[in-house]
Amino acid sequence: MNKVTAKTTYPMDEKDNPFDMDSSSFDADRYLEKLLKDCSLKQIMDTEAAVVKDTQTLHSDMQTLVYENYNKFISATDTIRKMKDDFKQMETDVNLLMTKMQSITTFSEQITGTLQGTRSQLCRLSEKHSLLKRLQFLSTLPAKLKSLIEEQNYAQAVQDYLHAQKVFAQYGRQPSFDGIQRDCDAIMAELKERLRQDFQRAGNTAQSLTEIGELLLQLDEKTSDLASEMLRCAAKRLHEQIVMLQDQTERDMLEFVDMGIDGFLNDLALVVTSYFDMFVAKHYEHERDDFQENALNELNLFLNENIDKYLTLVQDRVESDIGYGDTQVMLRALDRLHRRLQAMRNICRGLQVQRNTLDIIIAAAHQLCDAHGKSLRDHFADSLSAVRLSLVSAKSDLAAGVNLNDLISNLYVAMVEKIKGVLQDLMIFLRTDWSFNIKAEHKGALCVEGIRENLLIGFLRHISKVMCGFADASSSSPPNLLLVLSKTCLELEQQGVHILIALVDDLYEIESENSATLTHETEICAEMRETAQSLLDAYVRLQGTNISQMLRKSVETRDWLNCLEPRSVRAVMKRVVEELGSIETVVASLYESAGNPGFRTTASSDSSRKTYFSNFNASKPQYRSNWSNYTPSQLESSYVSNIHRLFSERVDIFTSVEFSKASIVMGIIKIGLKTLLECVRLRTFSKFGLQQIQVDAHYLQMNLWRFVSDENLVNFLLDEILGSAVHRCLESVLMEPNAVEIICERG
Amino acid sequence: MEENSLIYGLELQARALTPQYGEGNDVCFFIATNSLKPTNQLHLLQYDEEQGTIQSKIFEHALGEVWKLNSCPNDARLLVTVYNVQKGAQVLSQAALLTLPADGPKDAADEPIKSEYIPWAKIEVLDTAELGERVKTVEFHPSQEQTLACVVGNKLAVMQRAEASTRVVAEVSSSSSGAKHMSPFTTGKWSHHHQGHQFLALHDTSVRAYDVRDTQHCAWSIEDAHGQFVRDLDCNPNKQCHLVTGGDDGCLKVWDCRMVKAPVFERSDHSHWVWSVRFNTFHDQLILSSSSDCKVLLTCAGSVSSEAPGTESGEAIAAGSQERHKVLSDGLLQTFDQHEDSVYCAEWSNVDPWIFASLSYDGRVIISKVPKQYKYQIIF
Predict the structure, then answer these.
(1) For position B288, what pLDDT does the model report?
(2) How far apart are CA B151 and CA B209, in angstroms?
(3) What is the pLDDT of residues A687-741, one digit of tens each?
(4) Is the domain of A285 the same as that of A370?
(5) Are residue A307 and residue A323 in the same domain, yes or no?
(6) How would residue A635 be classed by pLDDT, with cut points 50, 70 and 90?
(7) Domain presence at residue A699
(8) Number of C-alpha atoms within 13 angstroms, CB side, residue B348?
(9) A653 and B293: CB-CB below 8 Å?
(10) pLDDT value at position A601?
């Protein structure tokens, strides 16, 4: 019912607008006044028409509404009248219900009254029953505890006592209970005493110790005291075990370790675990906060101390056994021990076992290495003296040359095999089925390298050093020994060292090629070669000296001024040649000459010498010694030898000896001839003295060429000898070359 | 190396070399030839270091071939030679004292003389006939000018020239050896120490020290000093009781005569007989040795020298005046191999500690110097 006109025409404030026809504060007069004032006539006319029209519309609307509401009022009046009739009937029904309920209430009150007495009686009875039961338990408790203790069923006794304890706590004031409680306490105190004694008694096993500890703990023993007491007792007991183990010297290692594991370690483990469970894992109200931590520390200390003791014992045992007993058995025992300790490491959190069985094993390996090293050295010394002995005893034997090879191969093979055996023996430490792995640790890896460095290389160095000692001029070793040792060194250098080092590298998987710290194979080879060389030099020097001695004596003792015309070669020259022949035989048996086999000699009998001589004449007819062409007039000139030297190349007489037959024999010959030269230069000769030298030199020339590869050197030296003799001669007249040859051929 | 050495050649074989002692500042050596030909020579070589030349004065040694030459430590003009003479079917060894002409008139040398040789001022043949036929060596006493030691055959005698007396001090008894050929003394040398009362004689493989005040008084001896003949010896001039020997076994050994069981130092670098061994007078860690392997070796035995640190201060004479020098490490320092024949003599100069001369049988004298690097190592 909005007044459309007013709204559209005068859009003003919604409330209190005196010009809004719909508003309650509408002021007709002001509206009209305003209208008249503001609007034109036309607008006023229009407004009037609109107002009239609105008024009419509102009027008809009101008529319709009144009519409709009248109808509704009529129907409502009808409904109210009907409701009035229904309510009257309901009132009677409700009155009836009320009377019936009243009668039910009275009946119920009657029943309750009758039952009340019986129920309260029942309640009292059941209460009394339970009380009586408890009383009975308490009264029999002392007796029961006693019998339980008699039966040694301490656990049950403690259980019961603890149970009763609660009751006493509740009714403790009553005098009758007090008696029982006193009895019980007395019994339990006794029990406690007994338990404590048991706890401290030596013979207990760790198992019972733990049980007793457990019980004492329940009986309110002071935790910290008990903890330290427990460790003290356990330590005592473990010590007894150690002492017992110490006496087991006659058992083998495996049994020894088994005993240790079964007795000592198991007990230790039990003690440790129960201690851990009892004191470390649980929390105790009445102990200080850091009690658990302290307990753990103490346990750690205890554990390490005992393991230490035991392992020291084991180590002592290993040290005394290694090298004597079966290494495999020992390692099996150590392996078992290692496993067990490994397992022990894992039993409790927060516990560390510092000492390691690996250290013992590594120490054992080291020790075994040393023992093997020593035995190798001993063996080497033994075989050396054996070689020496057989050389000395076979000295008279003509076939000495044959067994030199055997000696060398015996010495060499025995040595190499022995080393191989030792290396194989030590491999046992690295077997893959052991629970430990030596190489995994730095110390262990060092140990493995030690096998290579200290054992093998050390031994090879030892060999070279010992052999070098024989090369010393002061050591009076038989010459053949030097030869044998030199050859052995050479064999080692050429094969043995390589084989052995390759073997050890292979067996122990050592990367030696690129290692900065490990000794390289070539170093050892060089050392061996050096030793071989110095031994060979010593041999040549020694043999050369022997030859020299013969020649020197022969020249010194003869009166060269007053000797007769030479008729034969002097005996000493023949002896020298024979000596050289036998030396050559010996050397040839070791160093096959690389030259043509047709010239090889086996013996130096007279007949063979002759054939060689003819052979020599046939093959080298053009050769004539320089001096054999000298005429006496040429010899007068003191320049001859100098001029000759000028045109001949300088011959280096003293060069190092090579590892060949010719070189070795040549070295000896050179020393001998040089000595002869020096001796000749110290004497003065008569004509016949010179001719004797001429004969001797020719004889040497005839015989020495077959020993050497380069006969020019021999000829050069012989020329020098004869040249010097010419210089030292008062009347230098040489013999006819033909005569010399005849004398020489005659022998 | 090469420019360090100077070669002087003789026409004849030679085996005697000795430095000229005396006050002079020139490096001088005597050498003498060893030839059966009639004219043996004796050369006085003077080495001029600045110009690198050798000047020589040549004397004739008409007495015979010279085997051994010694010059007097107190008189530069005096020297003694041991030579061979032929007497019928025998060869005898004798000794003579030779005196050089006074150096006075300079022009005397320039003036042409009829002989090619300079004449001697005095020649005195020593009377050794009663001692034996084979004079091995005659040694001047290091301080007493008039005293000579003669090793003749198996006898050792001391001559007092002032008194013209000769006294046999020692003799190797022939009865002990028993063999028909008994080995005589090889050579000998005065000991620098023991107030000049000891003479060291070499006999076969042993060294024997005789006290010359007594007869047949062997102060000490080293038996079997070498495996074979002992060829030469030299006393350490700066360290008492130390001597070096060289032998036919090619070894060089330094001994302390208070401990004769074993040498204190040993090398065997030579491949044949060692003919001479010499300590350097100034730096006794340097030992010169020559051998018939045609080599001259310079060896250092620093650890047993008087220059070694920590040596007992017994040698107060040396320690007081001499400053300490660096000591080289032991062993072979240098090989000199310019010789082509056996080197029988090698001698240090008594003037310059870094110069030495060596003489080989073919008559070649080489004057060499210690390589610079060693010299500097020792000096600085």
Answers:
(1) 92
(2) 13
(3) 888 888 888 888 888 888 888 777 778 888 888 888 888 888 888 788 888 888 8
(4) no
(5) yes
(6) very low
(7) yes
(8) 22
(9) yes
(10) 39
Do A409 and A390 belong together in one domain?
yes
Q: Contact B272/A678, CB-based, under 8 Å?
A: yes
Answer whether B268 sits within 8 Å of A545, measured CB to CB.
no
CB contact under 8 A, B293 and A654: yes
Note whether A674 contacts B13, CB cutoff 8 Å: no
For chain B, give the mean pLDDT. 81
Residue B117: what are its φ and ψ, rounded to 5°? Answer: -105, 150
Which of B271, B291, B294 should one mutate to test binding to chain A, selecting the residue with the greatest count of A CBs within 10 A? B271
**Lowest-confidence segment of A107-111, A353-357, A516-520, A642-646 by average pLDDT:** A642-646
A570 in contact with chain B, both atoms CB, cutoff 8 A: no
Which residues in A lie closer than 8 A to residue B340 (C-beta atoms)? 645, 650
Q: Do A351 and A391 fall into the same domain?
A: no
pLDDT at res. A197:
75
- On whether both A365 and A349 belong to a single domain, the answer is no
- Is A684 touching B (CB cutoff 8 A)? yes
Across A279-301, average pLDDT? 72
Interatomic CA distance for residues A122 and A128, integer angstroms: 10
Same domain, A344 and A213: yes
Do B293 and A729 lie within an 8 Å CB cutoff?
A: no
The pTM of the whole model exceeds 0.80: no
- Per-residue pLDDT tens over the stretch A292-305: 777 777 777 777 78
SS3 A685: strand
CB of B252 closer than 8 Å to CB of B244 = yes
Are A635 and A488 in the same domain?
A: no
Q: How many domains does chain A have?
A: 3
Residue B190 bridge partners (DSSP): B199
Cβ of residue A647 closer than 8 Å to a chain B Cβ = no
Answer with the residue of higher pLDDT: A159 or A627: A159
The verdict on A681 touching B (C-beta cutoff 8 Å) is: yes
The answer to the question of residue A545 being in a domain is: no
SS (H, E, C) chain B: CHHHCEEEECCCCEEEEEECCCCCCCEEEEEEECCCCCCEEEEEEEEECCCCEEEEEEEEECCCEEEEEEECCCCCCEEEEEEEEEECCEEEEEEEEEECCCCCCCHHHHCCCCCCCECCCEEEECCCCCCCCCEEEEEECCCCCCEEEEEECCEEEEEECCCCEEEEEEECCHHHHCCCCCCCEEEEEECCCHHHCEEEEEECCEEEEEECCCCCCEEEEECCCCCCCEEEEEECCCCCCEEEEEECCCCEEEEECCECCCCCEEECCCCCCEEEEEECCCCCCEEEEEECCCCEEEEECHHHCCCCCCCCCCCHHHHHHCCCCCCCCCEEEEEECCCCCCEEEEEECCCCCCEEEEEECCCEEEEEECCHHHHHHHHC
CA distance A383 to A392: 14
> What is the C-alpha to C-alpha distance for residues A351 and A299, in angstroms, rounded to an integer?
8
Confidence label for A619 from pLDDT (cuts 50, 70 and 90): very low
Q: What percent of chain A has pLDDT over 90?
A: 1
Check if the beta carbon of residue B304 is closer than 8 Å to that of residue B242: yes
| Residue A525 forms part of a structural domain | yes
Instruction: Print the domain residue range for A528.
Output: 361-539
Candidate from A650, A678, A686 with C-beta closest to B292: A678
For chain B, the straight-line distance linking the first and the last C-alpha, in angstroms and rounded, comes to 21
pLDDT tens readout for residues A368-408: 888 888 888 888 888 888 888 877 776 555 454 457 777 78
Q: Is there a domain that residue A454 lies in? A: yes
d(CA A408, CA A386): 11
How confident is residue B277, by pLDDT bands cut at 50, 70 and 90? very high
Residues A586 and A693 in one domain: yes
User: What was the pLDDT predicted at B314?
Assistant: 42
ipTM for this model: 0.86
